[in-house]
Amino acid sequence: MDEERGFVFHASDGDVELNIDQVRELAAQDDADGLYALAMAYLFGWDVEQDEALGYDYLERAVDKGQTEAMSMMVRLYMQGQYDGIDSVRAAQYSIKAAEDGIPDAQLYAGLAYMDGVSVKQDYSEAARYFRLAMNQGNSEARTNLAYLYQEGLGVERDENKAFKLYRTASKAGNLNATFHLGICYEFGVGTQIDLQKAAECYMKGSGDGDAFATERLGYLYSEGIGSDGPDAEKSFECFINAAMDGVSTAMHMAGYYYLNGIGVEQNRDEAVKWLKMAADNGIEEAQELLSEIRQ
Questions:
Q1: Considering the chain, what is the average pLDDT of its residues?
Q2: Which residues have C-beta within 8 Å of that of residue 99, sequence separation ≥ 6?
Q3: Fewest CB atoms within 10 Å of the CB: 53, 122, 139, 152?
């Protein structure tokens, strides 16, 4: 267990720092903030031995008491697949309630609920409002989602240049999703001039951080030639096969196509069929068409 960290509580007369024993006393009194603090302690091993089951128990009790930070945390854990005690409807409800208290993560999740129409009627204007609130508190994922709404003209007036600038700012803040979309902007000229070299830089950064979709896009750029460089079939194949192994179905199709035609890799019909079948099983019609041609 690490050195004691203490727990900061916000009171009307200023912030108060309590130790773990004082937090336990508050929780024993069924105090909502005390329950939430003790939940965090057990969930993440802060000043106690980590015990997720006990942490979730305290988190649920804090939520039942109406503690909105606990609601936001519960939704985050649900979104990350770490907690299954609620469904998407309750997650949306908790997000919207916690968002009213100004919690950035909750504002993000509330925006997603309105964007996707989960538990509430789909409303892109409301989604944009919540994303903007979260963005103004420094949430880069909310900024990325707001950029998408501007790019597509959903709930806001379409403005590709504004979308590009929002993606760029979120990318600078380290948002992986924004970096991918920034690459798309540079590759296809969305809100900016086409610049394949900058697009490649975005995809390389994303690929290095584990974004398989960025790896796939890099494969297309290598196949066409980046900047003054000519096409590089071997690098292109390497990107497609890596993205395919990470589960990107369209990259599975490209890997099969490359194996079938010996592009950047030694021709191998069996490998081609394997990857094309995987792509077809994931709904890629072009892969199914190639498989039909091979079998004929």
A1: 94
A2: 106, 107, 109, 110, 130, 133
A3: 53
Q: pLDDT tens digit string along 241-270? A: 999 999 999 999 999 999 999 999 999 999
| Buried-exposed string 125-154: b where 16+ CB fall within 10 A, e elsewhere | ebbbbbbbbbbeeebbbbbbbbbbbbbeee
pLDDT, tens digit, for every residue of 83-123? Answer: 999 999 999 999 999 999 999 999 999 999 999 998 899 99
Q: How far apart are CA 141 and CA 103, in angstroms?
A: 14
Alpha-carbon Rg for the chain in angstroms:
24
Rounded to whole angstroms, what are the CA distances from 156 to 112, 129, 204?
15, 10, 31
pLDDT in tens, 144-172: 999 999 999 999 999 999 999 999 999 99
Point out which residues pair with 11 in neighbouring strands: 14
Please provide residue 8's backbone torsions phi and psi, each rounded to the nearest 5 degrees: -95, 125
3-class DSSP assignment, residue 138: coil
pTM comes to 0.87
For residue 170, give the nearest of 199, 193, 141 by alpha carbon. 141
Q: Which amino acid is at 249?
A: S
Give the DSSP per-residue string, 148-173: HHHHHTSSS---HHHHHHHHHHHHHT
pLDDT of residue 90: 95
- CA-angle at 12, arms to 7 and 17, nearest 5°: 20
Angle formed at CA 105 by CA 8 and CA 33, multiple of 5 degrees: 30
Predicted confidence (pLDDT) per residue in 122-148, tens digit = 999 999 999 999 999 999 999 999 999
Give 18's strand partners: 7
